Amino acid sequence: ANLPNTDKKDVKVTSEGDRQVRVDVVQHEEQKKDANGGQTTFSEFGSYDQLVTLPQPADMKDMKVDNSNGQLVITIPKAKAS
Question: Looking at residues 74-79, what average pLDDT do you find?
Fold first, then answer.
């Protein structure tokens, strides 16, 4: 996922069972500007929530999440055949 201007603390990735991954992102940005003797404040809020169902069972305990440079990359190995 492309998540520009998102801090790592704002991204939560959890597993639900062995085939579902939930991604929750809450963004908050506030800008303050002084112009012509006055002050302007701009606040922006956004949220993103997605539940992804994988095509086959996965080994969720070995899930790796990397959120750097505005990119969220989730790597989950396939479950071992029993």
Answer: 91
Fill in the amino acid letter for 64.
Answer: K
Structure tokens at 33: 């500007």
The per-residue pLDDT for range 45-69, each reduced to its tens digit, is 788 899 999 999 999 999 998 888 7
Q: Which secondary structure element, helix H or strand E, spans residue 68, and what is its range? A: strand 64-68
Phi-psi region of 22 (alpha: psi -120 to 50; beta: other; left: phi over 0): beta
Contact 67, 27 (CB under 8 A): no
Q: Could you report the per-residue pLDDT of 19-32, keeping only the tens digit for each? A: 999 999 888 777 77
Q: Which residues pair with 11 in a beta bridge?
A: 25
Give yes or no for a contact between 57 and 19, defined as CB atoms under 8 angstroms apart.
yes
Reading the block at residue 55, the tokens are 């095509």
